[in-house]
Amino acid sequence: MEQERHNATILGGGSFGTAMASILAANGHRVNIWVRDPETAAAINLDRENSRYLPGAELPAGVNATDNLEEALDQASLVFVAIPSKAFVEVLRQAREWVPADTLVISCTKGIYSEGFLLMSEVLQQEWPHARIGALSGPNLAKEIVEQKFSGTVVASPDEELCQVVQTALSCDYFRVYDNPDIYGVELGGALKNIYAVASGMAAAIGVGENSRSFMITRALAEMSRFAVELGANPMTFLGLSGVGDLIATCSSSLSRNYQVGFQLGQGKTLEEAVESLGQTAEGINTIKLVADKAAELGVYMPLATALYQIVYHGQPLELVIQQLMSGEYKHDVEFQLAGTGL
After folding, report:
1. Which pLDDT does position 29 carry in this prediction?
2. Residue 2: which pLDDT band, with cuts at 50, 70 and 90?
3. 78: Cα separation from own chain's centroid
């Protein structure tokens, strides 16, 4: 049975949006990438690559870049929103009139919107209540995806048909898409892991050992799950690709933007210097403050996130992360049990 062909739109011309455009076009779909800058759009169309974010990665036929939202969304049946969280609402409001009812819309942004502590799917539901909403998240370093190194991701939505459509549209011999109805948990995992990628980069910069890194990543997962339960997500979601999978990738790879920022902070650079050097959005920097404040409000024990907030925003020494880990209260190794099993 021949696969249905979609008119797909990617809102945002960063590395991940470009990687998704590449897969969709290679799978036979028509793809428009929307970028703000007309010169960037022209360069993508002329050179067949996104030289700013993924230099050297040739885009397949079927990908068109434009700075015009109406053109980008013309007859779109699938819309992937890959815009930094700080610009998310602005672009959604500009684009709303060109998104028909029941359009399938998938958030690819791993961040938290500060007003109301909203995840991106919640922002989408507020701004585009007429659309069908999902989220895409997982251990997906864009450079590796365009190099066709095999990867997996998760499409999350209670809308089963939406999940099936996205799975079919994006799956190929090097990219596998799983589904999960727990959209809140999947998105929360994608946002929270950015915090700990910053911490991991800082730890690498000062030369901690592999035991130390493993210890920190494991306790980070405990913090993420603890926070998720308080907010109503399913902690078991964090054992999947969008939780522990994404956490491992971003805490272990120098390709991770949040890891890179953390590494530079660990080398003694200021936050402004680290962010400027990166030249891209590192969502973890904003997420650190939002989560630390929310954890304090809810009374959730998150020593790593709290220590990072003090280091990044209040100039406390890096050693505070280690001190918080080693002097905090004792907890169970595995904090959540499967109902009725005692395990």
Report:
1. 96
2. low
3. 19
Q: What percent of the chain has pLDDT over 70?
A: 94
Q: Which residues pair with 135 in a beta bridge?
A: 107, 156
- The pLDDT, as a whole number, for residue 276 is 78
**Residue 4: DSSP 8-state:** P
Mean pLDDT of the region 16-26 = 96
* Tokens (6 digits) for 53: 């974010």
Query: Mind telling me the catalytic residues?
Result: 193
Q: What are phi and psi of 34, to 5 degrees?
A: -95, 130
Q: Are strands 112-113 and 118-119 parallel, antiparallel or unpaired?
A: antiparallel
Residue bearing the bigger pLDDT, 298 or 335? 298
Rounded Cα gap, residues 119 and 189, in angstroms: 11
- Can you tell me which residue has the tokens 């007309």? 38
Degrees to nearest 5, angle at CA 257 with 255 and 259: 80
**DSSP states of 192-252 as a string?**
HHHHHHHHHHHHHHTT--HHHHHHHHHHHHHHHHHHHHHHT--GGGGGSIIIIIHHHHHHH
Q: For residue 293, report the phi and psi dihedrals to the nearest 5 degrees.
A: -65, -40
Cβ 176 vs Cβ 238: under 8 Å: no
Phi-psi region of 332 (alpha: psi -120 to 50; beta: other; left: phi over 0): beta
Question: From edge to edge, which strands make up the β-sheet containing 63-66?
Answer: 63-66, 30-34, 7-11, 78-81, 104-107, 132-137, 151-156, 175-180
Q: Tokens 């280690």 — which residue?
A: 322
Of 48, 95, 93, 87, give the one whose Cα is nearest residue 67.
95
